[in-house]
Design a protein that fits this description.
The protein is built from 21 helices and twelve strands. The protein has 522 residues and is mainly α. The strands form six sheets. Strands 1-2 form a two-stranded antiparallel sheet. The chain has a two-stranded antiparallel sheet with strand order 3-5.
């Protein structure tokens, strides 16, 4: 089942007009009222569905998520976003601007909806369908501010864009990271309080909020609360690991599966741009480019991530294409390419010896990313693909994360643990990957497990970052970020690289963003 985005979000009551800063989205000041809108659950849920859509998330999930989470984290090699590979990111980076704009646009949507729904309630609207919708908005707002705090550290907090716009005071400061994280947590607590126990697949519930709170608590090293919230999700019995690991990321039939706590909802469409999942071409092997599916392999696995997998780890072939990798259902064909067509006739095999013009693959690390690559198109044995677009969701929180959060939070500050429940959680993840159970584990064991479990999902940089500067530096400097023709090790990692710079254009418009952060709470 898919959550259909309510494109009519552009109804006057929710029209967002540009303000002086990109991070302040405000409602139209045209005087439109809510009187004729949001009179039933269907209209309200139609509006909140837009918060799940790829439309507002597009500029983050398309490339910025990869550059920040996996290129910086040492999982992805690229010739395009080399500043993230080499830690020379400037405030003029396109990816920084894209992520910032996407995050504050989503927050702007949530801000306007919260205000609108509260006004509707005050005018006599039913709390039965308005309160859960308000809670959905708090979940999204809390989650996005958590992402902002992890990415930039100190950052603006905007909750009432209309009041800000009317005041004419656009000199908004950065607030201390601890206050941005506190704000995010408070939002998630309101979501937890107001969301239902269950909903249709794809919609967030009380347990989505608990899972995200567990992740935030872990980031804050509040191990007791991280463990407690993760345990509530586990004990609910509402989630389970999906046996088809690769299918979670490549098959529309597995969208909103029992492992998913929150995902960006994609439609199989090219228009509007961003409705579909557009990760496909950036990851796909060029040998799989067809008349239906684009594939230009902008991001490929690093040599370092390839060395991280244990022998026998099934996640390697589920996540990575290497010499000998096959999908015999894929039979791509091309016009006027007889050698290529002959090579592919009996099914696709990843080959680093065959000439590239005839179906071989010979990139800088001799590997490609299988995760989120839906294939060469339906006519050639893959999932439906329209050029750059596929219909599979992008998962931002799944049950495997909750299990590993529980295990790590149980470990806490100890050197190792043999706690039975923690081992059970960890070994559920390892068992799916075909690996033997551990009888004890350390923090490094957990970080290893998280790295290979969530490779190419945009999360590993934050796992490195939350270790603190000294350990982060040690992790980064050990990584080989080079190619098969030459190793490359980072020697310029300094503490100021732990967070990304504010986009240059935002500081020009609001000089307060270039100053030291201030407290948000008294």
């Amino acid at each position: 089942m898919k959550i259909k985005p309510f494109i009519a979000l552009l109804l006057p009551v929710l029209v967002l007009a540009s303000c002086k800063e990109d991070f302040i989205d405000r409602p139209s000041l045209s005087g439109t009222t809510t009187g004729n809108y949001y009179n039933n659950a269907e209209e309200v849920r139609g509006a909140t569905s837009t918060l799940y859509s790829g439309l507002p998330w597009r500029n983050y999930e398309s490339r910025a998520q990869d550059a920040i989470g996996d290129v910086m984290g040492g999982n992805m090699f690229t010739y395009t976003d080399v500043e993230y590979l080499n830690f020379t990111v400037s405030s003029a980076s396109d990816r920084i601007g894209a992520a910032w704009g996407a995050f504050y646009k989503i927050i702007g949507y949530a801000n306007v909806m919260i205000k609108t729904f509260e006004e509707k309630k005050a005018a006599g609207g039913s709390a039965a369908y308005l309160d859960p919708a308000i809670a959905e908005c708090h979940f999204i707002r809390g989650m996005v501010y958590f992402y902002i705090a992890r990415t930039w550290g100190a950052a603006p907090i905007i909750t009432d864009p209309g009041e800000t716009a009317l005041s004419g005071n656009f000199n908004i400061p950065r607030y201390l990271q601890r206050d941005v994280l506190r704000f995010a947590l408070e939002e998630l607590k309101m979501a937890e309080e107001g969301l239902p126990e269950t909903d249709v697949p794809g919609r967030v519930t009380k347990y989505s909020a608990k899972g995200m709170m567990a992740k935030l608590y872990l980031y804050n090293k509040d191990y007791a609360n991280a463990k407690a919230k993760a345990e509530e999700v586990i004990n609910s019995g509402k989630y389970s690991l999906v046996s088809d690991y690769n299918g979670m990321f490549t098959k529309m039939s597995l969208d909103n599966n029992p492992e998913t706590l929150f995902s960006i909802q994609h439609q199989f469409a090219q228009d509007p741009w961003g409705t579909g999942n557009i990760k496909n071409p950036d990851r796909g092997a060029g040998a799989l480019r067809t008349a239906e599916a684009d594939a230009w392999e902008m991001y490929i696995p690093t040599l370092d991530i390839l060395q991280e997998y244990e022998f026998g780890d099934l996640r390697r072939k589920w996540s990575v294409m290497e010499h000998g990798w096959t999908n015999l259902n894929w039979k791509p064909q091309r016009v006027n390419a007889p050698k290529y067509n002959e090579f592919m006739a009996n099914g696709f095999r990843y080959d680093t010896i065959q000439p590239t013009a005839d179906g071989g693959s010979l990139n800088a690390t001799r590997s490609n990313i299988a995760k989120y690559f839906a294939g060469p198109g339906k006519s050639f044995g893959g999932e439906p693909v329209l050029g750059q677009n596929s219909g599979n969701n992008v998962v931002l929180l799944r049950y495997a994360d909750v299990l590993l959060i529980y295990a790590e939070a149980t470990l806490g500050t100890a050197a190792s643990t043999t706690d039975a429940k923690a081992l059970e959680a960890l070994n559920l993840v390892r068992s799916r990957a075909g690996l033997p159970a551990r009888t004890s584990f350390t923090l490094d064991d957990i970080l290893h497990e998280r790295r290979v479990e969530f490779a190419f999902e945009g999360d590993y940089w934050y796992d490195i970052q939350r270790q603190g500067y000294a350990k982060a530096k040690a992790i980064i400097e050990k990584q080989n970020r080079g190619t098969v023709t030459g190793a490359n090790y980072i020697t310029n990692f300094t503490e100021d690289k732990m967070y990304l710079p504010i986009p240059a254009g935002e500081i020009v418009q609001d000089p307060e963003l270039g100053k030291e952060p201030v407290p948000y709470y008294n």
